[in-house]
Write a structure and sequence with these properties.
The complex is a heterodimer of chains A (272) and B (283). Chain A is an alpha/beta fold. Chain A is built from twelve helices and ten strands. Chain A has a domain of 188 residues: Rossmann fold, CATH 3.40.50. Chain B is mostly helical and 283 residues long. In chain B, 77% of the residues lie in helices and 1% in strands. In chain B, a hairpin with a 6-residue loop joins strand 1 and strand 2. In chain B, helix 3 packs antiparallel against helix 8 and helix 3 packs across helix 10. Classes of the chains: A alpha/beta (272), B mainly alpha (283). At the A-B interface, helix 3, helix 5 and helix 8 of A face helix 7 and helix 8 of B.
Amino acid sequence: MTTVAMAEKQVKMEERIVDIKNPVLSIQDLSIAYNKDKYAVKHVNADIKKNAITAIMGPSGCGKSTLLRAINRMHELYPDIVTEGKINLHDDDILKMSTIKLRRKIGMVFQRPNPFPTMSIYDNVIAGYKLNGIKLKRAERDEIVERSLRNVALWDEVKDSLMKKGTFLSGGQQQRLCIARALAFQPEVILLDEPTSALDPVATAKVEDLLVELKKDYTIVLVTHNMSQAARISDYSMFMYLGELVEYDKTKVMFTNPRDSRTEGYLTGKFG
Amino acid sequence: MKSDKVTKQILFAASLIILLTAAGMVFSLIMGAIPVFKEFGLGFVFSNEWDPTEGRENYGALPFIAGTLITSILAIVICLPMAFSTSLFIGEYFRKSAVASVISSMVDLLAGVPSIVYGLWGFYTLRPIIMELGLSPQGYGVFTSGIILAIMIIPYATSLSNEIISMVPNELKEAAYSLGATRMEVVFTVILPNARSGIVASYILAFGRALGETMAVTMLIGNSNVVPDSLFGTGNTMASVIANQFGEADGLKLSALIGIGLLLFIITALVNWIGKIIIKKFS
């Protein structure tokens, strides 16, 4: 490689990484392998901006869910996982924190709504406290439940049926209940793994509006296979392909002027 | 088209034969039991007299009903902690691992061991241990039978409940983990509440197996026709008294044994029915 080409490559690398001041999360040279030779995430570097929505896009199998799950270490539920590199939450290395503390600071919402079917709406919201054996006074619990349900604009819909099972709600309501459950601990970051892929368009719109509302108080990282969703609600976008973070930029910039031909190909529907 | 019709008829005939056989069995049990119920009425079920002496014959099934229920309850109590931990081990902690599949096939193997083999093992290995411990002078009795029964029903209690435990959706476990739960907390607040009725049903079905087990119990229970006076006392179960005495029975005594058979049939059918209702409600 000539020096000119190397210099060019250097510039390109730097261009891909957006400059974010005082990031909440800082992912540094992160690689994840499910087994020794099969890397799902390769050398990812990215800072995540506070009180913004960052979308991670890419075709299925590109490693976007694995990257998201690494942020609260849910990926470690797979037994033979190998994680290299670093993720910092402010100045703490999350790989060295206890997962219990970490997951209270970084909440998660999944693809399909998964309220606990044996619990009431009320108990679902407070489930994190119950699971961790944290004892609360009745009034405190009531307050947390009301606050969390108001946060997801579900309070008015369910306030008279708090003791009913969460599974009686519609799909969209269930997903908002799951978001409320994640909010109950007042985490700093909320991770969402394709949260609307099982919802109809009306319910999807409600969840999207909600996320835009929530970014005032929380930092949101969202995996989505839906490009228009990323375009609608995200401030920053990552495009991943075959485990690599190909491009990371302000959403507006990436959608109007992608730098990498692979990003362009994906955004214009040539593959994915 | 025509072969379809023929197949259908053959299948129908085969199922009909099974239905008729079952109905016939129930019918002959009832017919055989009529004399003893005519003689003693419902007292047959609640009396604890068992006197075959000619001239003052008196038959009551209570000692055997009691023996059956006590040994089976004891068996389920002993089996429960073992079956429960085994099914958690196979169904959750080591799900899909090689260790779990080895243990799971060992458990299934236990189900295939003939009753008489358990009886022999109990007679020559377990009974001397009970004697050694001074629990009972000859090692026979309700306690010894309960232990053997417990071992025999572990596979039934385990295989169904581990399946139900492993069926608890992954997304629910993940939800709990994402809230900072430890494995133990996931087990007790997510897995067990979701698998509860299925686990209960599997123990009920195992209990149903214990009620009817005959051979091993007959070899170990001591065969005395009284309500057991203690946990280590001897007794007889409904199945074991039939196995012991049918050979030399005729007349009223034979009818009494058939009557006990009918009661046993009713109790086990009832228990299985309850278990199946719970499973149905669960799935």
